[in-house]
Amino acid sequence: MREMIDNDDQDERSGALAAGFDEQAARAALVRACAAANLEVADPQLLRLGENAIFRLNGTGTVVRIARNDTHWDDAVKEVNVAKWLGRNDFPSARTTDVPQPLLVDGGYPVTFWAFIDGRNGQPGDVGTLGALLRRLHALPRPGSFELPQQDLLARVEPRIESSPIDAGDKDFLLELCDRLGSEIGGLNYELPVGPVHGDAHVQNLMFTGSAPTLIDFEAFSWGHPEWDLGVTATEYMTAGWWTADQYREFVDAYGFDVTSWDGFGVVRATHELKMTTWLMQNVQTSPKIAEEYALRIATLRDRENIGGWNTF
Fold it and tell me: Taking burial as the number of CB atoms within 10 A of a residue's CB, which of 79, 138, 243, 249 is the most buried?
């Protein structure tokens, strides 16, 4: 189920390492951040190293999230604001710890501190819970204490294509597709009212403590159209083949709207396919299996081959 967290930002290991953000640099930033926050660096456990380095401070109940450079400062500020706002609205979501944050430590690393969630990641059987939580999220009023950014659906896709180690023919095709979808997105007529959107609304951005769900990861949070959040699961169902018909129906019933019935879904689906493919292609040189999966997906985008046959990572 790895690629149920297949978004613009997760586990982009090769890109992070190429930029000099390796485990050694992340651990050095962790020490500086904890000193600034008056926290003991208690047996830190590296949970993930990618676009962010995420450490658990064992014995403290704290998780430290370190972004790889200062261009992510605004996102760090947003994540903290969103977490506090969701808490004020009694929404079941990740919570920050009670330290001044975010911090910008020497080296240009934005750092945030989070309460550790002692639970499990979301699984396929939790898709109905995801639908119900998204319904609650999308109904929340606009925050009054800070401004959510407007939805920007393709912001990271073009730079990703330009920098990825793929052949020129694929790059040209993907850039043309990105440009076309950008124009088509601008012409969509939406059915649902605008509201807060998660931006990476897949089932593994849920954590469960017992039966209680918690929504996590607010890096892509924005103000925009809920159809895009719903389109993640719909594309995973219709293109990738990661859901059964019954599971997808459970998601739809829990939310109360089937985005595939909307006449703009084709554009939403194609956009998510593009994002899922370009996320993966960054790492084609690191693994033959990833290269094989990228070839499968680009064939879907070009010729509609392999529908329902994508693999997870």
Answer: 79
Task: Say which residues have a Cβ less than 8 Å from residue 82's Cβ, sequence separation at least 6.
Answer: 143, 148, 218, 221
In angstroms, what CA-CA distances link 29 with 58, 61, 217, 226? 17, 19, 21, 36
In the chain, domain spans: 2-121, 124-303
Between 102 and 287, where is the model more confident?
Answer: 102
CA distance 252 to 141: 22
pLDDT digits (tens, 9 = 90+) for 279-290: 899 889 888 999
Q: What is the pTM of this model?
A: 0.90
Q: Is the pLDDT of residue 273 over 90?
A: yes
CATH of 2-121, one of 3.30.200.20, 3.40.50.150, 3.30.70.2760, 3.30.1360.120: 3.30.200.20
